[in-house]
Write a structure and sequence with these properties.
alpha/beta; Rossmann fold; globular; Quinone Oxidoreductase, Chain A, domain 1; 6-stranded parallel sheet; about 25% strand; 7-stranded mixed sheet; 2 domains; 12 helices
């Protein structure tokens, strides 16, 4: 099969790899119908040391089940399924708590002999616990929004849930990438009265307004914090930080009210942050983390009736052979989120 492999910073190649096969009885082989490039893929794309072996890429995909292992009971060949961005058995103690991201048997696509999602097919471990069957055809117009449930929409929802967004809240979303925009959807869906989106790219913030943002702040740093405080009469109740840089965290801390909550969704690109006496005295709750996407996919079933349309974050489509172009386009900020199809 053909698949994308990263060999180092800026070096993504499409190459022939072995067709996936059932290895364990809990496996399924899924033929990919649609996948995409994640914003988190851009971190290794910008900094990964060169390697001679390469790393299969992609952790967001949906497709059609081609084959199942002997222990798989909930899926059959021909089922259209969406894959959360990590696999899980959905039976361990962590999964029972709705924390499938910490599954004791789980793992990540592209590692430990498991295929990446940016390819023609994937062997999915623990298929019954991982894959979610979709009640639509493989050519449905809903596919982009259903694909968003693999990661960005469930991650945005995780930010809103862990921040405790509730009806009437004033919420700041830091970051106008796909996760930030989906966090706007999630905050609006949970009843936030006012949603401030911090971002500088007009096409993206314009989409954010359509998703429910009431205000946009383009300024950064202290100027941005001052503007947010001015707009909101002093600060915000909840913050969803969807970038992962120290500057984004500083913005969140500067804008949140005492007693407020900050949920971090962006993979941190820093090792240390301000958690000393000043923050302690403000009673700020710092939460968030990697989303247990498998727990949230059923909750976000309103994608199926078009109530929410996170698939609008996909603003350009690429064939699998053009995946390296998709990475370049996203890294250069010419594309918000690239959809990939075989």
């Amino acid at each position: 099969m053909r698949a994308a492999v990263m060999y180092g910073a800026g070096d993504v190649r499409i190459e022939d790899r072995p067709d996936p096969k059932i290895v364990k009885p809990s496996d399924a082989v899924v033929r990919v119908v649609a996948s995409c490039v994640c914003g988190s893929d851009l971190w290794p794309y910008g900094s990964m040391p060169a390697t001679g072996t390469g790393r299969p890429m992609g952790h967001e995909f949906l497709g059609v089940v081609e084959e199942t292992g002997a222990d798989v009971t909930g899926l059959t060949a021909g089922d259209l399924v969406v894959a959360p961005f990590t696999y899980s058995d959905n039976t361990c103690d962590y999964c029972a708590k709705g924390l499938q991201i910490s599954c004791r048997s789980g793992g990540r696509y592209g590692f430990d002999g498991v295929d990446g999602g940016q390819g023609e097919a994937v062997r999915v471990p623990y298929a019954d616990g991982t894959l979610v069957k979709l009640p639509v055809a493989a050519n449905s117009a809903l596919l982009p929004s259903l694909l968003a449930l693999s990661d960005v929409m469930t991650t945005g929802h995780h930010g809103a849930v862990t921040a405790g967004v509730a009806r009437g809240d004033t919420v700041l979303v830091v970051g106008d990438g796909a996760v930030g925009l989906c966090a706007v959807i999630a905050a609006e869906r949970l009843g936030a009265e006012r949603i401030v989106l911090a971002g500088r790219h007009e096409a993206r913030t314009g989409l954010g307004r359509e998703f429910g943002a009431t205000d946009v702040v383009a300024e950064r740093g202290e100027e941005g914090v001052a503007r947010i405080r001015e707009l909101t009469g002093g600060g915000v109740d909840k913050v969803i930080e969807a970038v992962g840089t120290r500057q984004a965290l500083d913005t969140a801390l500067g804008a949140v009210l005492d007693g407020g909550t900050i949920s971090r969704l962006g993979v941190p690109q820093y090792e240390q942050g301000p958690v000393g006496p000043a923050e302690f005295m403000r009673n700020i709750t710092l939460t968030g983390g990697a989303s247990p996407a498998r727990a949230y996919i059923p909750v976000l079933a309103d994608v199926l009736d078009g109530t929410i349309t996170p698939g609008r974050v996909f603003d350009e489509s690429f064939t699998l052979d053009r995946t390296p172009d998709a990475y370049r386009a996203m890294a250069d900020r010419r594309v918000l989120k690239a959809l990939i199809h075989p």
